[in-house]
Amino acid sequence: MARSTPVAESETVMSPFHRRGRSGAAATTAARSEPDQPELGDGLRLRPMTGFEEEFLETVIADPNTSRTCNELLARCLVPPGADHRAALDTVRALTPAHRDAALVGLRRRSLGDRVVSQVECPGCSATNEVEFDLSAIDLALDTPPSSVRCRLEDDREAVLRVPTAGDQADLVAVGLTSDAARRTWMLTRTLERLGEASGPFPEDAIRGLPTSIRRGLEEALADASPELDLSMSVQCYSCRLDFTSPFEIRGFFLPSSRAGS
Ligand SMILES: [Zn+2]
User: Are 43 and 92 members of one domain?
Assistant: First the structure.
């Protein structure tokens, strides 16, 4: 039996995603996703989803590694339905997580249209708000990430790293580390290519043994170089009028039955 959330009849809503820069992004509707439209911004030629992908999604519905699921889904939509997608998966894994997420938004629009309805709980009064918005309003333009990231550390050494990818993200989740510090160690081990005169790959203990100030410098360099896609929604509660921001779960696009909390 599906647990039902008391959704208020009076729905609030709107203000979709925070928009960045670009004025007039609200222009809606016109775009009913033509194939290969430029807003994907990543050069991916995605086709709309088919029953192959619906069935795939049902097999992974319980997999907590949503990053891996999203990578797989996109890879499958880069090849004809049911075809071997292993090479395509390498392509997707090489994207930054932000570019991968932008591609997911594009795939959703292409497959199921622009309109999305989502339910979010008000942090003030706990009322469930039904939020409806138009995906065409999202600015998916992302900067191309640098091929390598150079930074000068506080001990005056220069470090070279590469920007973390959607593949790194999925692998990190798969490792199942429970501490944030351990996750940072894992990611730095994977992405640090040079430190001063020394070339990587470095053993994990070498990264773990770096002074915190140096690790922090490396982490900040990676964060600065990684493109970000802002998918948070501005919502005003229909009940108490509180304005709040809610993260938008992209996975919910494709898994309508896996509603949060059920
Ligand atoms: Zn409220």
Answer: yes
Domain shared by 100 and 210, yes or no: no
Between 7 and 87, name the one with better pLDDT. Answer: 87
CA of 114 to the centre of ligand 1 (A): 27
Kindly list the distances between the CA atom of residue 98 and the CA atoms of 29, 42, 104, 155, 244, in Å, as whole numbers in the listed order. Answer: 24, 10, 10, 31, 23
CB 122 within 8 A of CB 243: no
Identify whether residues 90 and 130 lie together within a single domain: yes
Cα 203 to middle of ligand 1, angstroms: 50
- In this predicted structure, the answer to whether residue 3 has a pLDDT above a threshold of 70 is no
How far does residue 233's CA lie from ligand 1's centre (Å)? 15
The pTM score is: 0.78
Residues with CB under 5 A from ligand 1 (ion): 122, 124-125, 127, 237, 239-240, 242
As a whole number of angstroms, the distance between CA 209 and CA 198 comes to 15
Distance between Cα 153 and ligand 1 center (Å)? 46
| Other C-beta atoms lying within 10 Å of the C-beta of residue 248 | 22
Give 140 or 90, the one with higher predicted confidence: 90
Q: Is the pLDDT of residue 75 over 90?
A: yes
In terms of C-beta density within 10 A (0-12 exposed, 13-18 middle, 19 or more buried), how is residue 79 classed?
middle
Check: CB of residue 16 under 8 Å from CB of residue 134: yes
Give me the domain span that covers residue 238.
Answer: 38-142+228-254
